[in-house]
Amino acid sequence: MTAKIRYAYQQGSFEAAFRAPYAGMAAAAQGAIAAAGNIVKAEGRADIAAAGLGAGFVKALRVDIYPQGRNSLNATAHIYHKIPYAGVFEEGATIRGRPRLWLALPSTPQRRGRKSMTPELFRKTIGPLSFVKRPGKRPLLVAKAKKGKNMTKISLTRFRSGGR
Questions:
Q1: Domain coordinates in residue numbering, the chain
Q2: Beta bridge partner(s), residue 141
């Protein structure tokens, strides 16, 4: 007894036959990653809002699920923040000036009229600034002034006159 088998090959039929058992698992994996990504996004946004940062900062936390448009056993979630300096609040950072740093302390007036205080505006309106060289460190830009009585903040007029 002989058996004759006739087979007509169709493009992609083997691939479809081998992938069929994994289709349900791939859909479940994609769904699980999407659900986990949504949980992380919701909790992350809640943490950002609880820290007191603005709505724009909260909405900038994003989650992308890959591959997009199809199911895969190797699904991944890419969680990121659109604001590039967002990691500073978790990891910390060093603030550096180029080549010097203008760091306005609380005693420095924030504004002069409508303009924000800059070193140039400070020189024009309040008084001269001088550099303090520190060995092995960057120089500081300072204004010479004395503190008020009992170590209180100095008034702007007294600050202009050099604390006299």
A1: 13-91, 111-160
A2: 131
Strand partners, 79: 63
Give the span between the Cα atoms of 46 and 139, in whole angstroms.
Answer: 41
Q: Please tell me whether residue 45 adopts helix, strand or coil conformation.
A: helix
Residue 138 to residue 117: CA distance in whole angstroms: 21
CA 60, CA 87: separation in Å to the nearest integer?
Answer: 13
Phi, psi of 130, deg, nearest 5:
-135, 155
Per-residue pLDDT of the chain (164 residues; tens, 9 = 90+): 788 888 777 887 888 888 788 889 999 999 999 999 999 999 999 999 998 888 999 999 999 999 999 999 999 999 999 998 888 888 888 776 666 666 666 666 666 677 777 777 777 776 677 777 878 877 777 766 555 555 556 666 666 555 44
User: How far is CA 139 from each of CA 85, 133, 164, rounded to the nearest angstrom?
Assistant: 25, 5, 26
How crowded is the C-beta side of 163, counted as CA atoms within 13 Å?
11
Say what the pTM is: 0.53
